[in-house]
Amino acid sequence: MVIKVFVATSSGSIAIRKKQQEVVGFLEANKIDFKELDIAGDEDNRRWMRENVPGEKKPQNGIPLPPQIFNEEQYCGDFDSFFSAKEENIIYSFLGLAPPPDSKGSEKAEEGGETEAQKEGSEDAGNLPEAQEKNEEEGETATEETEEIATEGAEGEAKDEEEAAEGEGEPGEDEDS
Questions:
Q1: Per-residue pLDDT tens for 19-53?
Q2: Tens digit of pLDDT for each residue in 99-148?
Q3: Residues in contact with 143: Cβ distance below 8 Å, sequence separation at least 6, in sequence order
Q4: Which whole-number Å values give the CA distances from 82 to 9, 119, 153, in the listed order?
Q5: How much is the pTM?
Q6: Do 74 and 18 share a domain, yes or no?
Q7: CB pairs under 8 A, 24+ apart, for 79-82?
Q8: Does residue 170 sit within a domain?
Q9: Which of 26, 40, 113, 173 is the most exposed place for a label (fewest CB within 10 A)?
Q10: Are residues 108 and 134 in the same domain?
């Protein structure tokens, strides 16, 4: 099964280009096999995409915009549905694929076994108050230092302004008549 992503390589819309890049980038990063099909340069691709997007998924004008995602002949969705599936961590079911063995959707996770990261996370949870206390103390010190620097800076600026004002009030010193 190959995922097909219909894109427009010569789209003038920045929004469409960004959406296409996000879909393609995500699939590449997760090593999901896919085929990028250009609808701008190939009339057959454009026609096939438009005919196979279900009616309820088409926009009001009737012309679906890229990116559109299919698993072989089966429609998966557009960018918005892809984004939602990604946020809900159900991208493999959205694409009609079995999750990889090392993902959260694998059998081990379904059996309720803890992963290494979960075990480490529960061990670190006991040290939270100490770390929080330390951060608060460091924050107070940083705030005090910032206030001191700001005060020194303000005093220096006031002194510079006074000197500049004194230099302006004496006409005739630099004039050569």
A1: 999 999 999 999 999 999 999 999 999 999 999 99
A2: 988 766 544 334 444 444 444 444 444 444 444 444 444 444 444 444 44
A3: none
A4: 19, 31, 52
A5: 0.59
A6: yes
A7: 79/19, 79/22, 79/23, 82/23
A8: no
A9: 173
A10: no
